[in-house]
């Protein structure tokens, strides 16, 4: 069977080798695989100046012995006739570059792998015929999702770890996670101090919760600093490509800060915070989660779910006491374990007390993350 791995038109700076690692995995299992990328893909064309806050080694892509380069979508459709199966991400293109009738034009079957969050339940049904989901519950959800064809069967859905999560547990990758001492040394962090990771997430989503937390950010930083924490910052992956050329087939997708579109969100937040903080490069996303003690999840996003793989405790602050993943309009009745991973502190006159209590009462066992229910969401 002839198999291809397609990079699509969406590049994630926080796991820049996602496609390459998946290609290597399939090639090791089947003996052969082709890596398919657009001619204008950033993974083939990026020249780093040294000022960027993300990095990858493009030689791994450009010198791949199984690389096939396509000019555009029509070229890709034509190429698909030479394959029996093509793997790709369930998040194939950005919202601003949607492609219609993909399934109609394809000449082979497509199997999609899962990504963090809920996207596999929303986008992939328009072009996929097979799925690899990140847990037992996602299989059940996908079979019953509003956009899923009722003819889809269990046989079309496999369960395996999400490629974006593989770095948390596997050393057999082109880019295994750095050891903690390496990470601390790179960012000049103190091994004797605990670490707070500030993560605002998608600058285009959950705006009201982000705004509320932005007003509190200096209070949060001050309380943690008084408790001898060092502060690091990691923004949304597409924030890091702010200075890149966003064009068709490049994979570059910019999510600009809605409060100030003149600069990346990491620069905006660094200027907004009174105390000194360290900006973490995007490709060290997993290290930031693994080696931090607390995650300040400013927009209350599914980023908190990744603390399943670490001892980091995620929290948000909100006056609404709202779980943003409860009763999603496009996935009515679906439960996601956000409340298990993310503690919501109430925003009132006692908020400083709540933050201090969170720091002092942190659960060291983390057994609440490993319940039978939670395990159904992860492989």
If you had to describe this structure to a student in words, what would you say it looks like?
This protein is an alpha/beta fold and 379 residues long. The protein contains 14 helices and 13 strands. The chain has helices at 18-30, 42-45, 59-62, 73-80, 102-105, 136-144, 166-169, 180-186, 207-226, 265-272, 285-290, 338-341, 351-360, 372-375; strands spanning 3-6, 34-38, 67-70, 85-89, 109-113, 130-133, 157-159, 194-199, 229-233, 278-279, 294-297, 313-318, 342-346. It has a seven-stranded parallel beta sheet, sandwiched between helices. Strands 10-9-8-11-12-13 form a six-stranded parallel beta sheet. β12, α12 (338-341) and β13 form a beta-alpha-beta unit. α9 (207-226) packs across α13 (351-360). The longest helix is centred in the middle third of the chain and has 20 residues, at 207-226. The protein is globular and about 65 Å long. The mean pLDDT is 91.
Strand proportion, as a percent range, falls in 15-25%
Return the average pLDDT rounded to an integer.
Answer: 91
* Strands, total number: 13
What's the tally of helices? 14
Envelope shape: globular
Helix content: 25-40%
The main pleated sheet reads as: 7 strands, parallel
Give the CA-CA distance, first to last residue: 27 Å
Which class of secondary structure composition applies to the elements? alpha/beta
């Amino acid at each position: 069977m002839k198999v291809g791995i397609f990079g699509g038109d969406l590049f994630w700076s926080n796991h820049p080798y996602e496609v390459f690692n998946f290609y290597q995995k399939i090639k090791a299992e089947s003996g052969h695989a082709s890596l398919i990328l657009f001619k204008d893909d950033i993974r083939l064309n990026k020249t780093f100046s040294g000022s960027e806050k993300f990095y990858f080694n493009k030689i791994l892509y450009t010198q791949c012995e199984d690389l096939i380069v396509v000019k555009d979508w029509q070229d890709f459709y034509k190429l698909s006739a030479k394959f029996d199966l093509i793997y790709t991400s369930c998040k194939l293109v950005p919202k601003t570059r949607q492609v219609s009738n993909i399934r109609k034009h394809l000449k082979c079957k497509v199997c999609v792998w899962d990504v963090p969050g809920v996207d596999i339940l929303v986008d992939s049904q328009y072009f996929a015929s097979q799925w690899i989901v990140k847990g037992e519950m996602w299989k059940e959800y996908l079979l019953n999702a509003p956009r899923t064809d009722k003819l889809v069967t269990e046989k079309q859905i496999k369960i395996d770890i999400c490629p974006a999560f593989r770095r948390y547990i596997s050393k057999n990758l082109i880019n295994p996670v750095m050891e903690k001492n390496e990470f601390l040394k790179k960012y000049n962090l103190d091994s004797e101090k605990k670490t707070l990771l500030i993560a605002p997430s998608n600058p285009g989503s959950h705006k009201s919760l982000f705004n509320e937390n932005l007003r509190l950010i200096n209070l949060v930083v001050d309380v943690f600093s008084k408790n001898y924490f060092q502060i690091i910052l990691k923004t949304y992956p597409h924030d890091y490509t702010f200075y890149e050329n966003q064009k068709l087939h490049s994979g570059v997708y910019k999510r600009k800060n809605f409060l100030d579109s003149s600069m990346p969100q990491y620069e905006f937040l660094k200027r907004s915070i009174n105390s000194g903080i360290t900006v973490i490069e995007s490709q060290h996303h997993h290290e930031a989660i693994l080696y931090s003690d607390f995650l300040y999840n400013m927009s209350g996003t599914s980023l908190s779910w990744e603390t399943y793989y670490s001892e980091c405790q995620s929290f948000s602050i909100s006056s609404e006491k709202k779980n943003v993943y409860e009763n999603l309009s496009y996935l009515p009745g679906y439960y996601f374990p956000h409340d298990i991973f993310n503690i919501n502190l109430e925003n009132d006159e006692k908020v400083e007390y709540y933050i201090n209590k969170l720091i002092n009462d942190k659960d060291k066992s983390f057994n609440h993350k490993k319940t039978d229910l939670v395990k159904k969401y992860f492989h």
